Amino acid sequence: MVFALTGASCQSQTTSHDQTTQTQSQAGSNEQNPQKCNPLETRKPNSPNQKPAFAEQTRACAIKTNAAFEVQVLTKGLEKPWAVEPLPDGNLLVTEKPGRMRIISASGAMGQPLTGLPQVDYKDQGGLLDVALSPDFSTSRTIFWSYSEPRKGGNATSVARGVLSADQTRLEQVKVIFRAMPTYDGHMHFGSRLAFGPDGMLYVTLGERSDKEIRPQAQHMNSHMGKILRITPDGKPAPENPFLNQSGSMPEIWTLGHRNVQSSAFDEKGQFWVVEMGPQGGDELNLIQKGKNYGWPLVTFGEEYSGAPVPNSVTDKAGFERPVYYWDPVIAPSGAQFYSGKAFPEWQGNLFVGALRDQRLVRLKIENNKVTGEEHLLTDRNRRIRDVREGPDGALYLVTDESKGELLKITPKK
């Protein structure tokens, strides 16, 4: 099934997910972003009293894709897919939260679930989550994945690796290489994106498990919660980590002060970016720098879902990193990809982000580490975009977060 779309047609949609529409006045939107342009976002903010720290920090100028493209539904009937990872041969690895990983052919044929995976704790936000190929996959056939691991007293995010069998039916030599601590009896904010950096190290994003009793651990150095970690492919703390020799600190920590990061990607310069699920009115794009503190729950642009302020928080404070960009209203970001392919020259260097709440694919134009334009694509499909990846063919591949999820492919219109 193929749907032909252009950037202009995508731009005309509105969302009813949070019962708001794009009808706010231009003057109202300019209060949030004083840039001399037409901001894409014109809805009423979730947190209208919060003000950006600088002009480009929210409500970027609207941009439109000039090239026509088409969206092909490669596969239907996936159960709560969470990640898609293109393979060098054109096939695709897809995870499903209940605990299945399967290979889908380039033509969309759905393979049987791979055998050999460990048990997952499939409940609410937990289950089998991200998957990433080893940098030497072409020779080692090694795959890494994250999941919520059932443990005595609760669960937590773990990372495992295994070798894809030659017949692509099972995972062999499976080993859990990392277990986040502490174990907690909850079902929210597992984080779990995996990304290999240019340094060959594995960067792991972790949520702070949401509940107010454990949330402060995002600022505690003796906890993995609310952190971005940097580990070796064997699961050991990576050399030159900032807190490697600091007493009382988890040696895997790279940065701290995160709420729930389900989007991460390296750009062409080797810079590491994450898109973080904030509270109501506080989704953030952050440029990650070694050893920095990104604030949660002490610094945030958002508010509690009840509408109450986040306790003891401010929007800006010395010693904490400012987000490069934030969304208000939130989009609920999941999955991220910097585009480098030749299929869409005008997209090169742009960041694509899946949106769950707003049911769309977000395109950001970033110049000199500032967001200078934003476009919302696939708004007419009404699908929760869970992950987005670029294939070796320059196409974008997406999975949608539903009980009968889809695998989508975006290519130039023929």
From TrEMBL:
Domain of life the protein comes from: Bacteria
Biased composition regions of type Polar residues, renumbered to the chain: 27-36
Chain intervals for the UniProt region annotation (Disordered): 1-55
Record field: compositional bias (Low complexity): 9-26
InterPro entries: 6-blade_b-propeller_TolB-like, Glc/Sorbosone_DH, Quinoprot_gluc/sorb_DH_b-prop
Start and end residues of each Glucose/Sorbosone dehydrogenase domain: 78-409
PANTHER family assigned to the protein according to its UniProt record, in alphabetical order: ALDOSE SUGAR DEHYDROGENASE YLII (PTHR19328:SF75), HEDGEHOG-INTERACTING PROTEIN (PTHR19328)
Protein name: PQQ-dependent sugar dehydrogenase
Annotated organism of origin: Adhaeribacter terrigena
